[in-house]
Amino acid sequence: MSQSDSFGLLLFAPAAVSKKATVIKDLKQQDCEIVYEEQIRLDVERAKKFLELYSKPSEEEANRKEDTIATLTEDSCLALVVKKKQLSTTLKQLFEQNNVSADKEGGGENTEENAFSTKYGFPSDLIYYCTDKENAKECIDFLFPNLDIRSMSESNNPRKYLESTVVPILTSGLTQLCKLEHKPEHPCEWLGQYLIQHDPTLPPKKKIYFVLGGPGSGKGTQCAKLVTEFHLCHLSAGDLLRKEMQSGSPNGQMIDRMIRNGEIVPGHITIELLKNAMEEQSETRGFLIDGFPRKLDQAGAFEKLVGDFEFILFLDCPQEEMERRLLKRGESSGRSDDNLESIRKRFTTFIETTMPVVEYYRSREKLVQVDASRSVEEVYKDIRSYFIESKSV
């Protein structure tokens, strides 16, 4: 990297994040390289510290500090780390001139500020950019203490890039391939999947756990306890289907009819509902999905369209006990399927379609089975031990 190459930081306040495309376009037209991009959530203390590092505030800015902190903490900010030769000059040309009032005497209209707002779609005080090299480094180090800028500066060197990023993970994958007792029929396909799943440059993968059990086995109750202790997001396939059903859409009407008959809703509908719900939960550490997959083809489609999962938690409970629980729940739940006729249809469907899923993943050693006929506390004691052992929580 040339001596004149330097790094800079741009931080978009939440209200400006949606307009990033225009700013990034201008940066790239000026030959700026976006070497790192991340949405971050600042609490009050981190916002205060960032502002202290960012600038020496004037008296006027100090009076506005509380409003500025509120602006930075209302939602996620967007941070860009930018690299270019003589970056300071470029940032000043793009942004700094827009902050100067057109009328120095204070009586005129701030036409430069208006030009900024017109061009980018937000006021200039919603973007923070460091033109000083040392100041930029301080702010970057504060926001991203584990970010290795040195390795970024070497990214244009193919040999160093391969040595620092590709070789370690490839070596690890080949080592694991050699250790396998049963060698895969297609080793390159296996290696490709391994590299994708263990790529350190990708954001941490959110763990997915399926929870299966017959109707009334206690899936929702146990998931609620896991959410409280392990801070996972609980998604109930059944609840999502019922929500869609209540919307009155054509899919909802079909779902209503199928649930009343104890039938399995087509997998592509359930997977789409799950995928949309998962995308809305960007901050969670992982997902508990109960009541899914109900059929083997659903499991395969989910792995292909959404991702792999850690294991299936299977709550094993005698049919007599589940029937007793459901009839008791039906006294107050108001659910259309909590009646004896629907319950027995659901039992039949579960045995015929979902038990093959259980047995298949048992053979693949991705099943955890727990006796769910006992008290809630006894069942949870066994369940939590598997999550404590899991590396993901």
Automatic annotation (TrEMBL):
Q: Which residues form a coiled coil?
A: none
| Superkingdom in the source lineage | Eukaryota
What are its GO cellular component terms? cytoplasm; nucleus
GO terms of biological process kind: 'de novo' pyrimidine nucleobase biosynthetic process; nucleoside monophosphate metabolic process; pyrimidine nucleotide biosynthetic process
Entries under HAMAP family matching the protein: Adenylate_kinase_Adk, Adenylate_kinase_UMP_CMP_kin
UniProt: ATP binding residues: G216, S217, G218, K219, G220, T221, R329, R374
The question of whether Secreted is a record keyword is answered with no
- Could you tell me which species this protein originates from? Galdieria yellowstonensis
Enumerate the cofactors the protein uses: Mg(2+)
Report the domain remarks: Consists of three domains, a large central CORE domain and two small peripheral domains, NMPbind and LID, which undergo movements during catalysis. The LID domain closes over the site of phosphoryl transfer upon ATP binding. Assembling and dissambling the active center during each catalytic cycle provides an effective means to prevent ATP hydrolysis.
PANTHER family referenced in this protein's UniProt entry, alphabetically: NUCLEOTIDE KINASE (PTHR23359)
This chain's function reads: Catalyzes the phosphorylation of pyrimidine nucleoside monophosphates at the expense of ATP. Plays an important role in de novo pyrimidine nucleotide biosynthesis. Has preference for UMP and CMP as phosphate acceptors.
Q: Which GO terms describe its molecular function?
A: ATP binding; nucleobase-containing compound kinase activity; phosphotransferase activity, phosphate group as acceptor
The opening ranks of the lineage are: Eukaryota, Rhodophyta, Bangiophyceae, Galdieriales, Galdieriaceae
What EC identifiers does the entry list? Answer: 2.7.4.14
| Localization terms from the record | Cytoplasm; Nucleus
Keywords noted in UniProt: ATP-binding, Cytoplasm, Kinase, Nucleotide-binding, Nucleus, Pyrimidine biosynthesis, Transferase
Q: Which SUPFAM superfamilies does this UniProt record tie to the protein? A: Nucleoside diphosphate kinase, NDK, P-loop containing nucleoside triphosphate hydrolases
Query: One Pfam family, short name please?
Result: ADK
Which residues lie within the region annotated LID? 328-338
Cofactor: how and how many bound: Binds 1 Mg(2+) ion per monomer.
Q: How does it assemble?
A: Monomer.
Q: Which reaction does it catalyse?
A: dCMP + ATP = dCDP + ADP; CMP + ATP = CDP + ADP; UMP + ATP = UDP + ADP
Protein name per the record: UMP-CMP kinase
**Keyword field contains Manganese:** no
